[in-house]
Amino acid sequence: MRQIAFIKNPDKIQKLMLYESSEGIYLFGYDRLNDTSCVWDLHYDSVKDGLEYCNETFDIADEDWITISDPEPDCQHDFILPTKKADSKSAYRYQSFISGMWIENFIADTKENRFGGLTANERLYRLNL
Questions:
Q1: I need a surface site. Which of 5, 15, 107, 114 has the fewest CB within 10 A?
Q2: What is the rounded distance in angstroms from the CA atom of residue 68 to the CA atom of residue 81?
Q3: To which H or E segment does residue 125 belong?
Q4: Which residues contact 55 (CB under 8 A, 6 or more apart)?
Q5: How confident is the model at residue 114 (pLDDT cuts 50, 70, 90)?
Q6: SS3 assignment, position 15
Q7: Helix or strand or coil: residue 119?
Q8: pLDDT reported for residue 72
Q9: Is the dihedral of CA 79, 92, 6, 123 positive or negative?
């Protein structure tokens, strides 16, 4: 199970993802809204502990979370779309599975905090998530 939430009054962190895996509960923090790798992650023993941290630290209520699909096998857990490393040499070269094809996706070190005029929910809807 994965869920995302958007920070209401963002400072450095714009978005959060909570991921329940066989290895435990991970909380990923992002400094941008677009689909990219996280800037930090935390590990919890339970979903409840992760949700409590998000509520206390970021004022995220239970109803603020949006459930999204689990990552595909061999894909990055912290990306929304199915995404994998393009090669082991570059930290910023990825491939994303879009419209039935793996497309090279260079994650630049820029701050893009907008969705091209779309709300977060509209963007997720367009991505069929």
A1: 114
A2: 10
A3: helix 120-126
A4: 61, 62
A5: very low
A6: strand
A7: coil
A8: 87
A9: negative
